[in-house]
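Why do we care about 3D structure at all? Because function follows from shape, and shape follows, mostly, from sequence. That is the central idea of this module. The next example makes it concrete: a single protein chain, its amino acid sequence, and then its structure expressed as C-alpha cells.
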Amino acid sequence: MVRIKPFCGIRPPKEYAAEVASRPYDVLNSVEAKAEATERSLLHIIKPEIDFDPIADEHSQQVYDKAVANFKAWKERGWLVQDEQEHYYIYAQTMNGRTQYGIAMCCHFEDYLSGAIKKHELTRPDKEEDRMIHVRNQKANIEPVFFAYPDDEQINAIVADVVASNAADYDFIAEDGFGHHFWVVRGEEYNRRITELFAQIPALYVADGHHRTAAAARVGQECMKANANHTGYEEYCYFLAVTFPASQLKIIDYNRVVRDLNGLSKEEFLSKVSESFEVKLMGAEIYTPQNLHNFSMYMDGEWYSLTAREGTYNDNDPIGVLDVTVLSDLVLDKILGIADLRTSKRIDFVGGIRGLGELKNRVDSGEMKVAFALYPVSMQQLIDIADTGNIMPPKTTWFEPKLRSGVVIHSFED
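And the structure:
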C-alpha cells in the first residue's frame, strides 16, 4: 500500500502557464536552456546557470543561490502563486493524438525506502547529490517525478468525471507540439476518495525521475532526523509526483551508436554478428525493428535487420528478455569490447524521439561507425523488473512526452 496526499500547489496564473512551464532540467544543456528561456520560464529556477554571462558552473554555490533567489522572485512577481487549499491535480498530455491522464500528488519518502515505490534504474551519486541540494535549498519539489500505477477503474472514473465536467485550468501546446492540459480537483469528496483508493494500490513505479525521487527521499530523511518531534505526517515527508495508469504509458525506443568496430573490418564484424543473429541486408531505406529480439543496424550507408537466434536469449528472465541485454551481451560486449555502458566513451545513446534518421546522420557524418535501433521496452517488462527487484541496464527506457516543469510545485517550507 502507498501513502499519498493532496497539497497546496504553487503554480502559475492561467495567463502565464504556457510561458512558465518548461522542459525538465535534464533534457537540455545549459546553452539550449539559455536560448529557450523566456522572461518567466521556470528554466531560470531549475537551470539558473543560464542567468550568468558567461554561463556559470551549474554545481557552483552562486548558481544554487540564484535558484533560490529566482524562485522567491517568481512568487513575489505573481508568476507563481500558492493555492490556499490542498488539492489533487489532473495533468494530461497529448502526443500524436494519444492523451494520457496523470494525477499530481504528494508521495511519502518512506514508501520509496520500503520499496512500495519501485525503481528500475540505478542512480549516479553526483546527480543525486545535485538534485538533493536543490530540494534542500528550495524546501520544495520544483520538478515532479513521473510515476506509474496499476490501472484502477474507480480512479479512472474520477479522473474522467473531473475532465468531462470542468474546463481545463490550463490548456496549451508547447513548442514541441505536445499538448498539456491541467485541472484542479476541487471537490472535497473526490480528493478524499483519491487518497482512499491509492491506499489500496500495492505499489507505484518510477517511470522517469529516479535521481529526483532518491534526492527527495534523502531530504525527507534529513528533515526527519533534525526533528525530535517527528510524526511522519510533516509536509517534508512528501514529494511531488505525477502518477499515470500504466496502460496509458508508452515507452519509445532508446538506441545506440558506436564509434568504432573494435579493430575489425566490416566483413569480420558482420561475420561475428551472424553467429548470434540472422542478418539481412535491407538497403538504403531506414529499417525499423519489427518485434522483440529484432534489431536494425546501420553501417556504411546500409541498413540491416538482425534477428537474435533461438537460444541466445532467455524470455523467462526479466532482464534476459530485454533487447538491451541481448545487444549488450552478444554485440557490444562480446564483439565490440564495450563492457560498461555507463563509463565507455566509445558509445552514445539516442532517444527514439529523434527518429532513426538521427542514427543515420551520426554514422554518415563519420562521428560514429555503426548504429543499432531497438524495439521499445513495454510497460509490463518494466513492471516485471521492478517487481522482482531487478535493475534495467543503462539507457533502456525513454518516456515521451516529458512532464513540463512548473505546471505545479510542492513546497514543504514552514
